[in-house]
């Protein structure tokens, strides 16, 4: 068995030192406290800085723990908490768009519906929280795939299931579609899961901008799309506003 | 023409919120500010009424600017407020005389005991339909008279005004010392123990009993009618509604017909059932209260059942036991198991409220075996809220001629699907969640907009109400009956645990 890696031990010691006190430390203090040569300490600090585990104050040149390290242990988001934090925004999205709203997170190669708000027309509808949607054929799934929150099993190159003749079953086509999702910041599904139905979705980001889920609306294709078959711009605006509002609530600062 | 809106001000226990609603009852903007909670002695809870008035002056312009709305676009203002919280202030200067005593404050507990013995519950039930309790305002006025030197004399001399939060805020909004309107509405007045529940007027015998001079009391008005125009904050805008917060939630949930009920699930939970023109006197431990009074129409009454500990049990599970790190995680933990494993938690932390009213009860966890995991405990935590709701609904069905057909729910705990399904299962009626979660604010806005002609009638408001979610009962009736029996046996074990402190005898320091 190989022994401990010395540089990692030293990096851990530096992180413990920075975590131990309330104030920032200079290079000299770090080196002296741990009995390291300044050059060695500097090399380790620069590497830690590179992966955002350590930050250097621009004015004083002193070091402190980085934001990425603080969020390392807290990136897990409970799906029931996600629902709880999204409740008001999902309701508002349904009220404004007039369509049903769902929230999805990845679960074993599918989209798990974690929240569902009825279409506000008081027709009989059933909550489908807990049901699973296909990743490649739903707008929620495409968002999760596009941002790497979920992945499709590539082993054996199993064929993607065609739910309708519009479903993207060609992997190259799907890859191009996902690149476009990343570019525009939202995903659409137009009669790809069931004929006559369309949906739009946008990413929900947590701490540090990591995509933790997706929020989407769906309904009859003629309501979601215009006469050219393109998603209506006002619905795109609504879904993007809702996703940003939830992301801000979850602590994603830049979105 | 620019779009017009209705403004709702919700003066709650923790914060003051201002919300604008559009014609379809949709939320347009929100601004809120929390105020400080003062706990000068164990059991005492106080607010600074001047701070709350300052907060109102800040949140109103903020709500307007967030949405880019001009004050001229506001059709009317409605208020909802924490109920029973008592403010006394100087009629000439407008300065509060000490801090407001909050509804949660239990300093009047010894007085409650006294009143139960003499003149006895019946004296009060006949007049205001409320049994003596630390909740109600009259006991606080009496306490202040007994403990603040010279206060009773100043009140007798006509220098002092009394109000709950809506009275205090409307008085300030309409000019304060310079001709401010000193008014309250029938729902708030029905929580003072000073109003006659039938005539909706201050009751002379109750005033005489508590020694409260009529000159310090606000005029009792309808919940929705033109009170007057604001002179401060939003000059010229009509103030047209005031309701206690739970009644406002009933109104916001559009429970306008007898037999319709709502439950607000928060730290504690409040279930109100509209009984229409019938003033039902409960024989099963519920309170009779005014639901609302629109203009010069006859008042609608409600039965109210309050549950002390629901969300608070989840918070206890999180903060004191540390078994979860956020409240919604209770559902995740509960779903790790199939059922409660035979375990039941009765959260009688400070006794049991409706319908049992047992101050000698204390919390118990029963049915512990080596099989029980934290998942079973999480189930038992959620189920406690379901069974407590069932007990209140049973009492309501026993008191009222119309059995409950469905329960409209709101509040933070409605995000918990497992709990909402369980409530539907144990009540055996559908549980529905509306699209606007802010039902308290919405209710005040609805009442205000109705009085101002912004909305023509209750039917239009009903059409604004939309289902956002629905849970249908799906539990085997035999299992339901067996589990309910187990719950009731668990409650039996919580009763009589707390004993009055033993009198000091030999050996006691």
Describe the structure.
The complex is a heterodimer of chains A (255) and B (509). With 255 residues, chain A is an alpha+beta fold. Chain A has two domains: 6-72, Orthogonal Bundle (Arc Repressor Mutant, subunit A), CATH 1.10.10.10; 79-249, Beta-Lactamase, CATH 3.30.450.40. Helix content of chain A is 41%, strand content 19%. Chain A has helices at 6-20, 27-34, 38-50, 67-72, 79-97, 139-146, 171-184, 221-224, 233-249, and strands at 54-56, 63-65, 100-107, 110-117, 132-134, 187-190, 197-205, 211-220. In chain A, the strands form two sheets. Chain A has a six-stranded antiparallel sheet with strand order 5-4-3-8-7-6, with helices on both faces. The radius of gyration of chain A is 23 Å and the shape is elongated. With 509 residues, chain B is an alpha/beta fold. In chain B, helix 9 (311-319) packs antiparallel against helix 11 (374-399). Chain B is globular and about 70 Å long. Chains A and B meet through helix 5 of A and helix 10 and strand 21 of B.
Give the helix/strand layout.
The complex is a heterodimer of chains A (255) and B (509).
Chain A: H1 6-20, H2 27-34, H3 38-50, E1 54-56, E2 63-65, H4 67-72, H5 79-97, E3 100-107, E4 110-117, E5 132-134, H6 139-146, H7 171-184, E6 187-190, E7 197-205, E8 211-220, H8 221-224, H9 233-249
Antiparallel strand pairs in A: 1-2, 3-4, 3-8, 4-5, 6-7, 7-8
Helix pairs in contact in A: 1-3, 2-3, 5-9, 6-7
Chain B: E1 5-11, E2 15-21, E3 27-34, E4 46-47, H1 49-67, E5 74-81, E6 87-90, E7 100-101, H2 109-127, H3 137-147, H4 151-156, E8 160-163, H5 165-173, E9 183-185, H6 186-189, H7 204-210, E10 219-221, E11 224-229, E12 238-244, H8 245-252, E13 261-265, E14 269-276, E15 287-292, E16 300-307, H9 311-319, H10 329-334, E17 344-346, E18 364-366, H11 374-399, E19 407-410, H12 417-427, E20 431-434, H13 439-451, H14 458-464, E21 467-471, H15 477-494
Parallel strand pairs in B: 1-5, 5-12, 9-10, 13-19, 19-20
Antiparallel strand pairs in B: 1-2, 2-3, 4-7, 6-8, 11-12, 13-14, 14-16, 15-16, 17-18, 20-21
Helix pairs in contact in B: 8-13, 9-11, 11-12
């Amino acid at each position: 068995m190989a022994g401990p890696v010395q540089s990692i031990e030293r990096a851990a010691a530096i992180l413990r030192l920075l975590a131990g006190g309330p104030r920032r430390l200079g290079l000299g203090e770090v080196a002296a406290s741990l009995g390291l040569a300044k050059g060695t300490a500097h090399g380790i600090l620069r590497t830690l800085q590179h992966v955002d585990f350590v930050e250097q104050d621009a004015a004083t040149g002193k070091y402190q723990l980085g934001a990425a390290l603080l969020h390392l242990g807290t990136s897990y988001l409970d799906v029931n908490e996600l629902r709880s934090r999204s409740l008001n925004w999902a309701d508002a999205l349904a009220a404004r768009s007039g369509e049903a709203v769902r929230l999805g997170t990845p679960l074993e190669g599918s989209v798990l519906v974690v929240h569902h708000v009825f279409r506000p027309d008081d027709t009989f509808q059933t909550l489908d929280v807990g049901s699973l949607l296909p990743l490649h054929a739903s707008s929620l799934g495409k968002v999760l795939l596009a941002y790497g929150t979920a992945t499709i099993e590539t082993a054996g190159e199993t064929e993607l299931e065609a739910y309708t003749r519009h479903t993207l079953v060609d992997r190259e086509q799907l890859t191009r579609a996902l690149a476009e999702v990343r570019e525009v910041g939202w995903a659409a599904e137009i009669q790809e899961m069931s004929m006559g139905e369309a949906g739009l979705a946008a990413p929900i980001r947590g701490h540090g901008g990591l995509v933790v889920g997706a929020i989407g609306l769906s309904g009859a294709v003629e309501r979601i799309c215009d006469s050219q078959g393109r998603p209506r711009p006002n619905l795109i605006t609504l879904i993007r506003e809702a996703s940003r509002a939830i992301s801000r609530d979850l602590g994603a600062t830049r979105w | 023409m620019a779009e017009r809106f209705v403004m709702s001000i919700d003066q709650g226990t923790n914060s003051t919120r201002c919300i604008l609603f559009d014609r379809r009852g949709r939320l347009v903007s929100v601004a809120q500010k929390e105020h400080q909670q003062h706990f000068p002695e164990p059991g005492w809870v106080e607010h600074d009424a001047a701070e709350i008035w300052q907060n109102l002056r800040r949140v109103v312009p903020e709500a307007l600017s967030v949405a880019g709305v001009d004050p001229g676009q506001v059709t009317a203002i409605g208020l909802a407020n924490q109920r029973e919280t008592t403010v006394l202030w100087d009629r000439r200067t407008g300065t509060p005389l000490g801090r407001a005593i909050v509804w949660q404050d239990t300093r009047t507990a010894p007085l409650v005991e006294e009143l139960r013995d003499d003149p006895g519950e019946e004296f009060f039930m006949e007049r205001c339909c409320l049994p003596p309790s630390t909740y109600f305002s009259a006991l606080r006025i009496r306490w202040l008279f007994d403990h603040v030197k010279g206060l009773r004399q100043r009140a007798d001399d006509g220098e002092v005004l009394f109000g709950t939060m809506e009275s205090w805020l409307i008085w300030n909004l309409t000019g304060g010392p310079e001709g401010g309107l000193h008014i309250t509405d029938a729902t708030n007045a029905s929580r003072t123990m000073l109003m006659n529940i039938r005539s909706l007027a201050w009751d002379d015998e109750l005033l005489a009993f508590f020694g409260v001079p009529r000159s310090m009391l606000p005029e009792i008005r309808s919940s929705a009618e033109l009170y007057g125009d604001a002179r401060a904050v939003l000059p010229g805008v009509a103030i047209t509604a005031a309701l206690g917060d739970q009644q406002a939630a009933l109104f916001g949930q559009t429970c306008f017909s007898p037999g319709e009920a709502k439950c607000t699930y928060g730290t504690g939970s409040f279930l109100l059932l509209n009984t229409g023109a019938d003033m039902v006197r409960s024989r099963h431990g519920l309170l009779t209260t005014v639901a609302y009074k629109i203009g010069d129409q006859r008042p609608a009454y409600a039965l109210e059942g309050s549950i002390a500990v629901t969300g608070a049990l989840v918070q206890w599970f999180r903060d004191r036991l540390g078994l979860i790190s956020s409240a919604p995680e209770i559902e995740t933990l509960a779903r790790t198991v199939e059922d409660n494993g035979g375990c039941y938690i009765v959260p009688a932390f400070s006794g049991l409220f409706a319908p049992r009213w047992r101050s000698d009860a204390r919390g118990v966890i029963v049915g512990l075996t080596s099989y029980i995991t934290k998942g079973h405990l999480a189930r038992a935590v959620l189920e406690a809220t379901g069974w407590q709701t069932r007990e209140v609904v049973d009492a309501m069905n026993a008191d009222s001629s119309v059995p409950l057909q469905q329960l409209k729910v709101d509040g933070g705990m409605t995000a918990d699907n497992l709990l909402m399904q369980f409530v539907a299962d144990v009540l055996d009626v559908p549980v529905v969640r509306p699209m606007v979660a802010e039902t308290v604010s919405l209710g005040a806005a609805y009442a205000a907009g109705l009085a101002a002609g912004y909305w023509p009638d209750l039917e239009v408001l009903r059409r604004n109400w939309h289902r956002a979610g629905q849970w249908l009962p799906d539990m085997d009736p035999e299992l339901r009956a067996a589990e309910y029996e187990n719950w009731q046996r668990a409650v039996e074990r919580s009763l009589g645990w707390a004993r009055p402190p033993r009198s000091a005898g030999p050996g006691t320091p």
